[in-house]
Write a structure and sequence with these properties.
By secondary structure, this protein is of the alpha/beta class. The strands form 4 sheets. Strands 1, 2, 3, 4, 5, 6 and 16 form a 7-stranded mixed β-sheet that branches. The chain has a 5-stranded parallel β-sheet with strand order 8-14-9-10-11, with helices on one face. 28% of the residues lie in helices and 20% in strands. The protein has 2 domains: 207 residues, 3-Layer(bba) Sandwich (FAD/NAD(P)-binding domain), CATH 3.50.50.60; 107 residues, FAD/NAD(P)-binding domain (3-Layer(bba) Sandwich).
């Protein structure tokens, strides 16, 4: 027996029928549906407070979906139907949801390792060890900032932040800002910063949806048509168009922001950033960009390196059928991008996936 194995077995462990890793909307949804079935479980969350993944985002962030689509199963979102909640309102809602349904969450439990233990699983979070018959990994595909390899070559005088660390303009130096990545996050941060300083937005044009989401038509007609009908029912892994959409990679079109909004705010567009020269960003045109601040709106990457069972394909994506891992009995995923439908990572869509996984868990426990 190796040193690591001896250390693991020497730690006192708790036993639970089900351990849920992740206390965001996916983990809470699974917990809600397990509780309705009378199944005992515990939720392990690395944050210190439910909803912190929302609280940590930039100060002015609002959801793209109106409030009537922002509630989890069992508890409508407490706001007028056509309003767009702030990120702090969403965080508080998730905290209230956990409290309302008395979901057993352990905060400050960042999971370091998930491994097999006999017929079940061992989950290690620091010095705490949990053993379970069933484990649900309730996390999105996006856990760590995706930065280009040359980001570290920027001159130390340039303030650089990833969008996940950006809060407001107070974090930046005086002077202009180059925002790398022209998707939704980049466009919204660009509009905000353009009120106080020169802003350049680097990256290809990703397009935009053909209506204003803040209009009556957008809030009450298109939101129901697109999000409920198209994203939830038509674009699923059971339909040809859904499978095609699931295979597509790349940024979504702009949802709230318009190209003309950026132009009116005097946000200047540039080509892609392809490297660093003399400590400054290098554009594909060959221009070296002298700038005081860089914000990387380049997305996030998955990090499932802590999961030991061999459940991943060559692209490091979990192999599953609607969240059920068939080659590792008792292991499940919820919250993944396009787990079953385009709506799987959205507040209004995660409940269906959670219910499906909770049913699979109940059947598995009944067989045992």
């Amino acid at each position: 027996m190796g040193l690591m194995e001896r250390n693991q077995t020497s730690l006192a462990s708790e036993r639970h029928p089900v351990v849920i890793v992740g206390g965001g909307q996916a983990g809470l949804s699974v917990g809600y549906h397990l509780a309705r079935r009378g199944i005992s479980f515990v939720i392990l969350d690395g944050a210190q407070r439910t909803g912190d993944s929302w609280r940590r985002r930039w100060d002015s962030l609002r959801l793209f979906t109106p409030a009537h689509l922002d509630g989890l199963d069992g508890l409508p979102f407490p706001a007028s139907a056509g309003s767009f909640p702030t990120k702090d309102e969403m965080a508080d809602y998730l905290e209230a949801y956990a409290r309302r349904f008395r979901l057993p969450i352990r905060h400050g439990m960042r999971v370091d390792r998930l491994s097999r233990a006999g017929a079940g699983y061992r989950v290690q979070a620091g010095d705490a060890v949990f053993e379970a018959e069933q484990v649900v990994v309730a996390m999105a595909n996006y856990q760590k900032p995706a930065l280009p390899g040359f980001a570290s070559d920027l001159d130390a005088s340039i303030v650089q932040l990833h969008a996940g660390d950006y809060r407001n303009a107070g974090q930046l130096r005086e002077g202009g800002v180059l925002i790398v990545g022209a998707g939704n996050s980049g466009a919204e941060i660009a509009l905000e910063l353009a009120r106080s300083r020169p802003v350049w937005l680097a990256g290809r044009n990703v397009g935009e949806i053909p209506f204003r989401i803040g209009s009556f038509f957008g809030r009450h007609v298109m939101s129901r048509l697109m999000l409920r009908l198209v994203f939830h029912h038509l674009l699923t892994r059971d339909t040809p168009m859904g499978r095609k959409a699931a295979a597509r990679h790349g940024p979504a079109p702009l949802i709230r922001t318009r190209g003309r909004d950026l132009a009116a705010a005097k946000v200047r567009r540039t080509g892609r950033v392809v490297g660093v020269q003399s400590g400054r960003p290098l554009l594909e045109s060959g221009q070296v960009f002298d700038i005081a601040n860089v914000i990387w709106c380049t997305g996030f990457a998955p990090d499932f390196s802590w999961i030991a069972p061999p459940v991943f394909d060559n692209a490091s994506r979990p192999r599953h059928l609607r969240g059920v891992v068939e080659n590792e009995a008792g292991l499940y995923f919820v919250g993944l991008n396009f787990l079953y439908a385009m709506s799987s990572t959205m507040i209004h869509g995660v409940g269906r996936d959670a219910r499906h996984v909770a049913d699979a868990i109940a059947q598995s426990l009944a067989r045992r």
